[in-house]
Every structure is written in structure tokens, then in C-alpha cells.
């Protein structure tokens, strides 16, 4: 009930239109004196429709004075024409379509503002300021943090402001800021970014910036600026408004002039109603958005489909987009005298007592291999270094090379590929081997790029905060020639804004991608892991963990645009044919109004093809492959 009241208060014209329709319909259906009640219904609807037309005309004149002409011109003409010939129900339908479209646009804008507010709400709000050297701590609003304040960041807390590390060492998850999936180790004096997630050990930082100047807030500001800098899209139907309006008025005027009968003017305008233009694109876009949703793709508006259908450039983030975004075990390298399963079982047994993301990946991999970790009789975790555990009366040390070397001096660095990370192991004072982890490239990432190129994309590039070597290792395997790495969020925004081959589609996830998704012509968020800043800034959200849906979304967009344009041209062709008949006096106004409804029906039926079916959906997700030509 509250939602209905809220809707009515926010969209009064839509609510009034529906109310007028219900009242007039009840009068005509249940009135006793049929003729009288029909006149009342007619007067009610006509007066309401003309009032809306007058309001639209004022807005239309303002647009004309500003040098803009849209489909509203035709809508005003259509309302006046349908009222003048007694087709008052048709006028009410046009009013509903106009007000409904405006309500949808307003709803989309309001939702964008709410989502940006949600992004602001997730910024760190409190900080733990240290009082002297005695360890006392006071909680203060993050806005009160001053440069030079020493702050305690507890385990698994978000760093509230930019600072430098005072503690000897620390481990931070910066994936939401830089896209780097593996934890970043920091030492005393190293910079720590706000918005990064502390590991399982409390650390002390010294603030180097106020909250408003810190990294997380800069990201929020970039989102606001990027969203506000977008040029408004011109509605698809508006592009046909000027020639169609001019042609309709010219033909109606000629018919009046030649015949000398002003009725002829009205007869032409009745069949010149813009319903095919008003209906075709929205119906097609609704069908396209519904079709996309069946594939786990949420499209936030018809304008997005239009932009996506014409995309010339696609830029990808790496972590969580072209890769899975979580580390996995890629190799177990036992030293002499150690079996692979034996080594892996000992490592998993020790790592089950650590909360580190790498430990979690190792334990999960052991279970997948059918190995059962043993219980430890003793275990301790050395912050940011590793774990020491006693497993079956054996001392097992797992962690960084320098840490393991202190127990087994003969430990040696492993040869690792770009994008990999090594975990070293010592057992009873002897070097036992190495576990290699990596963030795996998605199996269908290459096919996705192939499909995008086949759909007409001219340029594919990678924009990532990861190290250059890691990015090139991943991008090279996917035949992406344009790779730009070690980027901050503002760098990504600058690069996308400078791209000349537009429209530009940006695909990413995480807080660090929010600004560039907002500034791109079409932002696509990999949102399968839940609502993120990326999802809120994006125009398209992929709700399943499948990057190939990017190409599927573009294919749906192109098909939707094809159907929308076909439907518009079908409606225009039929309307022009009826206008010619009316101009020569072969089509009375009443019959013309009836035939115009047939035109509307044909337009709607044709536009509904954008919804697709099971057979066309199978073709959509199983496209014909072609050889990759490179970006």
C-alpha cells in the first residue's frame, strides 16, 4: 500500500491518467442513460487530454526555442487530432504513453542517485585514534581524522584514510581499489590506501590525508563527476520526429488547400499519429531487456541497448573480469624425499589455522584433491610471514621465502610465471617444496573477445591496476595487443575519455572500476558476487559469473535495435500509406482512427520479436566462431 501511495505521489500524471480511464470506463460500462454517460466520458477524457497537451506544448515551445525538436511535437498533434474527431480513448492512450515514458526516465535517474548514495554510505565512517604511547584508543568519526593522527586498524577492518604503516609489517587486500587479487604486503613507512582491507593482524598507521582527500573518497568523487559529465542520449524516436512531423503537416496542408475542406486536414493528422514511433522503440527495448534478463544480464535502460549495439571499443579490467579474481593452486613442487600429496597434505594441515586468503585457497584445493588435512597439536601464525604448526610430531613451516629460510637455510626461490605467487614449505628444518598459486584466466575469455570482434568491435584493450608483467602475461594469452597496467582509477577514467573509437564499453568489477564504468558510454559490471560500487555505476550488470555474457549482451542489443528500427519504419510506411488515402478523401476520420489502431497493433507485434524465443536464444549463445584477427 505504501508503494502505491509513493508511486501516486511521485508520478501524478500517470496516476491521474489511469484514474480518468477507470472512471470514464465505468461510466460507459455501467451508466444508465448510455448517450449522456458516453458524452460525460468523452468530455472527461477530452478535457484531461487537452490539458496534458497544453502542458506538453509549453515544454515543446521551450525545446524549440532551445533548438531541440522531439517526438512530443507529434504527440501534441496526435492528442488534438484524436480529440477533434472524437477518438478520445486514443488520446488517453497517447497521454499514458507520454507520462509513462517520463516516469520511467525519472525513476532511472532517481535510482542512479540512490545507488550513488549507497556507495557513499559504504565509505569508512569511524576511526580508532591512538592516545599517546599507553595503548589507549578513542573512536572518532572519520571526518575528524587529522594528518599525523595515529590510527589503529583492527583485523578485517577497512583502512579509514590514506596513511603510512607504523607497524613493522602488514598485509592488505587492495583488490577493490587496484584490482590486484593477491594480498599486498607492506612494511614500515609504506603507503596504505583507504578502502583497502586489513588482514588478520591489527596494525597502526599514521594518517597522511584527511578523509575527503583519501583514495576511497576520490573514487566516489570520480563516480559523481563521471555520471554528471555524460551527454544525454537522444531518444531513438526523436530522430524521426522532424521529418515525419514536417511531412505529415505538409501533406495535411496540401490536402486542405487542394480540397478546400479543413476536415481533410484533420483526417490526415488522425492517421499521422506518432503511435508507431512512440510504441515501437519502447516495446522493442522492453523485449530486449527481458531477453537479456533470461541470460542473467540486467540492462538499466533502452538507451543503453542502443549504445551497446553500436559499440566500437571494449575495454576490460583484468582481475575478476578476464580472470576469476581469486587465487588457485596451479602447481605443487615437492623437494627431494617428499611426495606431492604428502607435501600438500602437510601444507593444508598447517594452513587451516590461518585466515589468510592464500591459506583458504590451499585448504580448498586439498579437499578438491581428496586429501584430508590432519589436526595440529600446536599452531601459531606469524603475522604477514606464515604459519608454524606441529603435524603428526613434525614441525611444518609455511609462508614467505625469507621466513621459511630462517628454519631451512637451503630453501630456494621457485621459478614462477608472471601472475603467480609462491608459498614455501619447510618440514623438520628441511626445505620441503613450493606451492604455486595464480589467478586463473577465464576459460571463455578468448572466445568472448572473438565474438565481440565478430559483432563489429574494432578495438579491444585491457585497463588494470595490476603489475605490468602480470597484465601482459594474461593479455598476451588472450591476444589483446593494447594493455595498460598499474593504473589508478583516475588513470582509467582519463584513458577511456580519450578513446576516439566510440561508443566505448568498459567491463569491470569492484570499487576501483566504478568511476570508469560511470564515464564509459556503456559500463558493464560483473556483479555475480553481490552488489558493488561497480554494479551501481554500471549500465549493464551481469548477474552470473560469466564474462561471455558481455558478447551476449551486445548481440541482444544489436538484434533489439534491428527490430526497433524495422518496427519504426513499418509504422511510418503504413502511416504514410494511410495519410495518402486520407489526403485524397478515401479515408474518413473515424475509419482512419480505426485503421491507425491496426497500424499500432502491427508495430507492437513486430517490435515484440525483440523478446526472442528459446530457439533464437540458443543461436545467440552458440554463435558461429571465426578466427581471431587481433584487436
Explain the overall architecture:
It is a single chain. With 631 residues, the chain is α+β, with helices and mostly antiparallel strands. The protein is 51% helix and 18% strand. The strands form four sheets. It has a seven-stranded mixed β-sheet with strand order 10-22-21-20-11-18-19. A six-stranded antiparallel β-sheet has the order 2-1-3-9-4-7, with no helix packed on it. Helix 17 links the parallel strand 18 (459-463) and strand 19. Helix 3 packs antiparallel against helix 4 (72-84). The longest helix has 35 residues, at 549-583. The protein is elongated. The protein starts with a helix and ends in a 10-residue tail after the last helix. Mean pLDDT is 80; it is low at 229-234 and 624-631.
Amino acid at each position: 500500500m505504501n508503494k502505491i501511495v509513493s508511486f501516486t505521489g511521485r508520478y501524478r500524471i500517470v496516476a491521474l491518467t489511469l484514474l480518468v480511464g477507470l472512471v470514464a470506463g465505468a461510466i460507459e460500462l455501467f451508466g444508465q442513460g448510455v448517450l449522456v454517460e458516453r458524452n460525460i466520458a468523452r468530455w472527461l477524457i477530452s478535457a484531461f487530454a487537452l490539458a496534458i497537451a497544453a502542458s506538453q506544448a509549453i515544454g515543446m515551445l521551450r525545446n524549440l526555442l532551445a533548438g531541440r525538436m522531439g517526438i512530443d511535437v507529434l504527440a501534441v498533434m496526435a492528442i488534438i487530432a484524436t480529440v477533434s474527431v472524437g477518438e478520445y480513448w486514443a488520446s488517453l492512450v497517447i497521454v499514458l504513453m507520454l507520462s509513462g515514458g517520463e516516469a520511467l526516465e525519472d525513476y532511472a535517474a532517481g535510482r542512479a542517485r540512490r545507488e550513488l548514495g549507497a556507495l557513499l554510505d559504504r565509505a569508512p565512517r569511524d576511526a580508532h585514534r591512538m592516545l599517546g604511547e599507553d595503548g589507549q584508543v578513542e573512536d572518532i568519526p572519520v571526518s575528524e581524522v587529522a594528518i599525523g593522527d595515529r590510527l589503529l586498524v583492527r583485523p578485517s577492518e577497512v583502512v579509514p584514510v590514506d596513511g603510512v604503516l607504523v607497524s613493522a609489517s602488514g598485509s592488505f587486500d587492495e583488490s577493490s581499489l587496484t584490482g590486484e587479487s593477491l594480498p599486498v604486503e607492506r612494511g614500515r613507512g609504506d603507503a596504505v590506501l583507504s578502502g583497502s582491507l586489513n588482514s588478520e593482524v591489527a596494525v597502526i598507521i599514521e594518517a597522511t590525508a584527511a578523509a575527503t582527500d583519501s583514495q576511497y573518497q576520490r573514487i566516489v568523487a570520480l563516480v559523481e563527476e563521471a555520471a554528471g559529465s555524460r551527454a544525454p542520449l537522444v531518444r531513438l524516436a526523436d530522430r524521426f520526429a522532424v521529418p515525419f512531423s514536417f511531412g505529415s503537416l505538409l501533406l495535411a496542408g496540401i490536402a486542405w488547400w487542394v480540397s478546400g475542406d479543413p476536415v481533410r486536414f484533420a483526417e490526415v493528422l488522425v492517421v499521422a499519429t506518432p503511435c508507431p514511433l512512440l510504441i515501437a522503440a519502447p516495446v522493442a527495448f522492453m523485449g530486449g531487456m527481458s531477453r537479456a534478463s533470461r541470460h542473467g544480464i540486467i540492462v538499466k535502460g533502452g538507451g543503453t541497448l542502443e549504445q551497446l549495439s553500436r559499440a566500437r571499443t571494449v575495454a576490460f579490467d583484468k582481475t575478476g573480469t578476464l580472470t576469476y579474481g581469486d587465487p588457485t593452486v596451479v602447481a605443487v613442487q615437492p623437494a627431494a624425499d617428499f611426495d606431492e600429496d604428502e607435501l600438500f597434505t602437510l601444507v593444508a594441515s598447517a594452513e587451516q589455522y590461518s585466515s589468510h586468503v592464500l591459506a583458504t585457497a590451499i585448504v580448498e584445493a586439498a579437499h578438491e584433491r581428496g586429501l584430508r588435512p590432519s589436526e595440529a597439536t600446536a599452531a601459531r601464525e606469524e603475522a604477514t610471514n606464515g604459519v608454524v604448526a606441529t603435524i603428526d610430531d613434525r614441525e611444518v613451516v609455511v609462508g614467505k621465502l625469507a621466513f621459511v629460510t630462517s628454519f631451512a637455510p637451503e630453501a630456494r626461490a621457485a621459478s614462477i610465471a608472471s601472475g603467480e605467487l609462491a608459498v614455501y614449505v619447510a618440514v623438520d628444518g628441511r626445505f620441503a617444496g613450493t606451492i604455486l598459486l595464480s589467478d586463473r584466466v577465464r576459460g571463455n575469455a578468448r572466445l568472448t573477445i572473438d565474438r565481440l570482434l565478430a559483432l563489429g568491435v574494432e578495438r579491444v584493450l585491457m585497463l588494470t591496476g595490476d603489475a605490468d608483467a602480470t597484465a601482459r602475461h594474461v593479455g598476451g594469452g588472450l591476444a589483446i595487443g593494447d594493455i595498460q597496467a598499474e593504473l589508478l582509477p583516475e588513470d582509467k577514467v582519463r584513458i577511456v575519455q580519450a578513446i576516439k573509437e566510440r561508443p566505448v564499453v568498459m567491463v569491470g568489477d569492484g570499487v576501483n572500476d566504478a568511476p570508469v564504468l560511470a564515464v564509459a558510454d556503456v559500463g558493464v559490471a560483473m556483479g555475480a558476487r553481490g552488489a558493488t560500487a561497480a554494479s551501481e555505476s554500471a549500465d549493464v550488470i551481469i548477474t552470473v559469473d560469466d564474462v561471455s555474457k558481455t558478447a551476449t549482451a551486445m548481440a541482444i542489443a544489436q538484434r533489439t535495435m534491428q527490430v526497433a528500427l524495422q518496427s519504426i519504419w513499418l509504422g511510418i510506411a503504413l502511416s504514410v500509406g494511410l495519410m495518402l488515402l486520407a489526403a485524397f478523401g478515401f479515408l474518413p476520420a473515424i475509419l482512419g482512427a480505426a485503421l491507425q489502431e491496426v497500424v499500432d497493433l502491427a508495430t507492437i507485434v513486430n517490435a515484440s520479436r525483440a523478446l526472442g524465443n528459446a530457439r533464437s536464444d540458443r543461436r545467440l549463445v552458440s554463435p558461429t566462431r571465426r578466427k581471431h584477427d587481433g584487436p
